[in-house]
Design goal:
The protein is of the alpha+beta class. It contains 6 helices and 4 strands; from the N terminus they run E-H-H-H-H-E-E-H-E-H. It has a 4-stranded antiparallel sheet. Strand 2 and strand 3 form a beta hairpin. Helix 1 crosses helix 2 and helix 2 runs antiparallel to helix 3. It is flat. The C terminus is likely disordered.
Length: about 190
């Protein structure tokens, strides 16, 4: 797996359509399409790889300051649309996922299925310049449709524990362990194993 240079974090709305799906069934259906149309399905697989390659390239360009954040946002919008369209051509979309796309598009947000498709979840890209009100309205409209929505980020730091010599977390401007109801004397040797 390659490191995505230039990538920091992206915001998304994760929408669970609550439509049950079967990864096994989706994989079987794609397999049947691949048997029937091997040449076409191979080109679709190449297109998915090209979307990934282009995404990697745009973030590398951002790291080198050869593109603007606006360019990254515009590119991500296009890549999300292309990726979803290719997955739809695989036969793995679902009317509920298309409904998510319709709703979010009304608010200038781009969505795509995630996972094996056939129901399940969709990811909606929240551009760095998306008006907060547009995100709020899309979220509310999706929930009104009966979907569950969660606003999240990818690429952001996760939970970490740091130890710098014998210094405490507080000395570095952090929150003390006691704030979380944990003892101040953490058994570091046990954690490091």
């Amino acid at each position: 797996m390659d490191t995505l240079h230039g990538f920091t974090a992206l915001d998304f709305i994760l929408t669970n359509t609550l439509v049950p799906k079967s990864t096994k069934k989706q994989v079987e259906n794609v397999g049947l399409r691949k048997e029937r149309f091997p040449h076409l399905m191979n080109h679709l697989l190449e297109a998915v790889q090209a979307v990934s390659d282009e995404c990697k390239s745009v973030f590398e360009s951002l790291e080198k300051a050869s593109v603007t954040l606006q360019h990254v946002n515009d590119t991500m919008d296009s890549l999300i649309d292309i990726n979803h369209s290719v997955l739809d051509a695989y036969g793995v979309s679902h009317p509920s996922l298309e409904r998510v796309r319709q709703i979010t598009a009304r608010h200038n947000l781009r969505s795509k299925l995630t996972g094996a498709g056939g129901g399940g979840c969709a990811l909606t890209f929240v551009r760095s310049d998306s008006p907060r009100e547009a995100v709020r309205l899309a979220h509310a409209e999706l929930e009104k449709e009966g979907f569950e929505c969660y606003e999240t980020s990818v690429g952001c730091p996760g939970v970490r524990a740091c130890r710098v010599g014998d210094a405490t977390v507080e000395e570095f401007g952090g929150v003390s362990w006691e704030a979380f109801g944990m003892p101040g004397d953490i058994p570091w040797a046990r954690l490091e194993k």
